[in-house]
C-alpha cells in the first residue's frame, strides 16, 4: 500500500529527471540518460513515458547512442505504435548511410519492430539492402526477410522477397549464403509444401563450398539444409559425404551432430561392400565419443541421439561400451541415458563387464538410479540369452544385500526372466520366498504372487504364502488383487484338494466385497469357468504363455528411419517425429532415408529402388498360408470384414470358419462379381475416421481386375468446408505396393459429399517387411492437412493371372521344397465339392494343376504366384461326404531372392 | 530459432530477460521452476523441458541457469552451444560470470546479447569481433570515456566479420611478438575396489595465447601425432593439411583461443598417475566404522603430483568422523556428509594417509552404499598421453616471435570405487 505509493512517487521523480537529461544539449549527458533508461527498462520498470524523448536522441552520429535508442525502440514500439512512426524517417535515412554498419543496423532494427505501419515502410529499404554492395548488409537483410515473413507473410510473397532470398543462395559470400539458407529454412517451416529450398546438384555444390568458409552457425544451417537433399545416386552421395566428414572434427558440437545426420542419412545410399562405406562407419565413432566428454547438457542431447544411432547402426559404437559407464557425479538425466545405451550395446562379448558395472550401480546412493540399474540387469538377461544365468546370480547377490528397494526391483525383473526362460531358474524361488515380508510395493508384491501362483506345484507352502496375502486383500492395490485372484485360481487348479476353501474365499472377496469392476469381472469369469468346466478352466488359466519378447523398447523401424533424418533436432531428443509435437508444423513432411542405389529397379526413379538394407521379404510360411486362406471365398456374412490382425494370430482355422460355411449361399453375389470382371471385393472398411482427420472420412477396400490391383476408395467430406488438392502416398511395404498414378479426385469435394475413387496400384514400389505382412501405411493429403492410416490388404490381390504352373515343374518343385517350409490347415464345415471349390479358387487366381482321387478322397494340387515372383503350392484334400478340408501348403522360397 | 533468454539465479528469481522476437511472458519459466523443484540437486534439472507452446533449453553455469526459449524445431545443441558462448563472453567481459557482475553491467549485457543474435540467428559470437563492436568495461576505459566523451561502441565494421579469416582482425600490431601454447590434459578414470582400471580416457586441449603482428601463418607439428585420432579444431586450422600431413597449419586469431581439443579413448592404454589404498568398513551391530586411506604416485614419469584434493560422499548413516591426516587438512560436513581432504603435494618417500573412525547413529543398520572417492590433482610439465610438440614455425611475417610451450596434466572425473 503505502510503500508502493512512496516508491511510485520516487520513480515519478526519476522519470522527470531522466526526461530533463534526455533533452540536454550535452551529448554525454544524453547518452548517460539513455543508458539509465535502458537499465530501468531491463529491470522491468515502465519507462515508456519517455518514448518521444528517447526517439529524439535517435538522430545522432554516435553509434553507441543510436544502438541504445534502437534497443529501446524495439522494446516499446509495440505498445506505442503511433510514436514509433516518428522513427521511420530516421530508419529510412540510415538505410542509405555510407557506413555499411549503419545501413545493416537500420534494416536489422526495423525488422524487429513488429508494427504494421513500420513494416510498410520497410519494404523499399529492404529491397535495396538485399542487393547492397556490402555482404555484411546483404547477410543482415537476408535475416530481415525471415523477420518480415513472421510479421506479414503475404507481404513478403507479394514483394517477391522470397525469390531474392533464393538468389542469395548463389551469393559469392559464404556468410550471405548461410544466412539465406537459415532464413529460407525458417520460412519453409511454416510453408511445408512450398518448394522454397529447391535443392539441385548446382545449389548443393554452392552450399558445400560455402560450408567450408562460413561460421560455425552457418555450417549448422547449411548441414541441416543438405540433410533434406536426396542425392541422385551413390556417387553423388559419396562425394557429399566426403566433403562433409571434415565437419566431424569441428569444435562446435552442434556442427558435429548435424554432420553426423547428413552422413547417417546419405550412407544409407552407399553400397555396403564399398570400401568407403566401411571408412565412413569408422569415422563416425570418435566424434560421438568426444561429445560425451562435454558438459552434461550437451552429453544429454548427444546420448539421446546416440540411442537412435545405436539402434540403427549398432556396429558404429559396438566397441565403445566403456564410454557409457556411469560416473557417480553425472547428473541423473545423463546416468539414465547411459544406462539405456549400455543395455542396447550389451552383447555376449561384453556382458561380463556390463554386469559388473550394473552391480556396482546397484549400490549407489540415488534410489531411482539403483532401481533402474537392477531393472537393467533383468533386461540384459532377456536380451543376451547366454548371460541369463549370470544375471540371475547377480540378482540373487543383490537380494542378499536385503536393501529393501533393491530386493523389490530384483523380484520384479526375476518374474520377467521366468517368463522368458520358463522352467530354468526355479531353484531361486526359495530365496525369493524368504523376502516375502519385506515387499511393500505393489509391483513387487504382484510379481512375487505371480511367481508363487505360476510355480505353485513346486512350492510346498504356496497355499500358506498366498493365504497370508489374502488377509489384507482390500488394502492391496488393484494390481496385487488381480494377481492374487489369478494365482489362487492357478493354485487351486494345480492342487485342488487342499485349496478349495482358499479359492472360494478369494472368489467371494473379488466378486462380492469389491467395488472394482475389473476385479469383479475376472472373479466371475473364474467362478463360472471353474463351476461349469474345470477342464476348460485348466486349459485357459494354465495355458502356455507366450514368451516375452527380447526388446520391447526398440523404436519401430519406420519411426527410427524418420528420426535418423532428424538427428540433432528436438525430435531426436524426444524420439517422436516432429509432426507429433512441434507446434505449427501442420503438414510437416515425413522424412525418409534415401533408398540404396545399385538395386535392380534403382535406375528409373529415385523412389522405387529397393534398399538392400531391408531384409528381403520372404514371408514365413506360417504367415503367408494364414493369409492365403484368408480368401473370402464367399461374401462376408456380416457387414464387417474379419479383422485380419487378430485372425492371423489365431491361425487360419478361425478365418475360414465363417467364410467357407457361407460359400454356397454366396454363389449369387459371386456370379455378379464375375460378370463384372471383378476378381474379389470385400466390403468397404472405414480406414480413417472423420473425427481423426479433420472431417475427412476414408473407407476402402482392394480389388484385382484385369490383372491390376486397385485400391477402391470412398472419400467423404464430413467437415464444413470444401476439400481440394487430394494426394496419396504409401509407406514402403512388404510387396512394394505403390500408387500407379495420382489420386484422381473430382474436386472440390463439398461438405457432405462422397466420392468414389479407384486407384490402380503397381508392385514396383520400395519394399520393407511389415508386421503383419499385409499391412499398408497410407498418407492422404488434402488442402487441410496430411492424414495417416494403415489398412490390411487381402493377400489374394497379389495372386497373378499367370500363376498356373506347368505340371512337371509343379511336381519337381513340390519335391524340392524342404519340409520345414510346409504348413497344414484344416477347414471345417465346407460343403463344396472339389470341382466347385476348384473353379471358385480359380476365380481368385488359385489354379488347380491336377486332381487325384484316392480312397474316396479328392486331392487338388494348386499353384499360386505372387506379384513378387514367389510361388506357393498347395494340396487341398476333400473327403467326400465330409465337410472337412485339409490344406497343405508349401512355400517356395529358395529360388527367388530380392 | 532462439526466441528469448531468461537468467535465473539459484533461489529461482529471474534477474534478466532478453527477447529477440516477440516478447514471451516470464510465466513460461514456471515450467522450469517446477522442474527445478522436482530435481534433487541443482544440476539435475533436465536440459530440455517441453511446455505447451515452447521448449526451454537450459544450461547451469556459475550457479546461474541460462534458460533459452524456443518455439519451433531448433537443434538443441545449437542452443546449448550458443548459451555456452554467452557464458564465455560474460566471463571474458566481466572477469566473472555472476549475478552481481551481470547486474552491474546490465547495459553492456544487453548490447552484447543484441549483437550476438539477430532474430534468434547468431550474428557475432567470436570474442575478437565482439570486442571490436563493444569495448569491455574497464575502470580505466570508463574514466577515459568520461573525459574524452568517446564511446564503448566501435564505429567501424569489424574487419574480420566478412573476410576469409573471420576470426582475425587486420592491422594487429605488437611490440613484443609472442606465441604461447598450453597442452592441458584431463584424465577421467573409474578405478574399481581392487585398484584396477575400469575405464580411463584423456581429454586434452591446446590453448593458445598468440600476440603476433600482421597476418602470421603458423604450423605446429608433433613428435607423435598418431595419438591424435579424435580431434576437434578451431575453425582456423586447415583440415586438409592435417589429414594429409598431420601438421596443424593455421592463421591464428588474435589473443587467447583454443586451438584444438582431443580425446584419447579408453581403448588406448592410459597411464594412471596415482593410486589409492583404502579400507572403509562398517560392522553390523557396531556404531563405529573404520576409515583408512593412503595415496601414492604411480605412472608420473618422475614428476611431482601436486594440488591433491580428495573428496568423498560418505553414507547417510555417518554422523561424524574422527580422522588423522598425515599431512594437509580435512573437513567433514555432517549435513551433506561430504568429506574433503586437502592433501597438497604427494611425497613419494612419505605417502600421505588419512586414518581414523566414523561414528554412526546408534542402533542404525550398516549403511548400504559404498562411497566413491573423487581425486583431484595436477602434474606440471607432463602430458599424460605422452603428446609432445615437435616444432612451431611461422610464415608470412618477417619478425622473430618468442615461442613457448607448457604441459600440464590434471584429474578430470577421477573416481575410485570402494
From TrEMBL, chain A:
Q: Which domain of life is it from?
A: Eukaryota
Tell me the GO molecular function terms: clathrin binding
Q: Which residues form the Beta-adaptin appendage C-terminal subdomain domain?
A: 799-898
Q: Which residues form the signal peptide?
A: none
UniProt membrane topology term: Peripheral membrane protein
Instruction: Please list the GO biological process terms of this entry.
Output: intracellular protein transport; vesicle-mediated transport
Q: Which family does it belong to?
A: Belongs to the adaptor complexes large subunit family.
| PANTHER family associated with the record | ADAPTOR COMPLEX SUBUNIT BETA FAMILY MEMBER
- Could you tell me what this protein is called? AP complex subunit beta
Name the gene. Answer: AP1B1
TrEMBL record, chain B:
UniProt cross-references to InterPro entries, sorted A to Z: Adaptor_comp_med_subunit, AP2_Mu_C_sf, AP_mu_sigma_su, Clathrin_mu, Clathrin_mu_CS, Longin-like_dom_sf, MHD
| Signal peptide extent | none
Q: Known PROSITE patterns for this protein?
A: CLAT_ADAPTOR_M_1, CLAT_ADAPTOR_M_2, MHD
Q: Which domain of life is it from?
A: Eukaryota
Give the keywords, sorted. Cytoplasmic vesicle, Golgi apparatus, Membrane, Protein transport, Transport
**Keyword rRNA-binding among record annotations:** no
Q: What is this protein called?
A: AP-3 complex subunit mu-2
Biological-process GO terms, alphabetical: intracellular protein transport; vesicle-mediated transport
Q: Which residues form the MHD domain?
A: 176-417
What is the native source organism of this protein?
Scleropages formosus (Asian bonytongue)
Record's GO cellular component terms: clathrin adaptor complex; cytoplasmic vesicle membrane; Golgi apparatus
Topology in membrane: Peripheral membrane protein
Query: In which compartments does the protein localize?
Result: Golgi apparatus; Cytoplasmic vesicle membrane
Similarity comment: family membership: Belongs to the adaptor complexes medium subunit family.
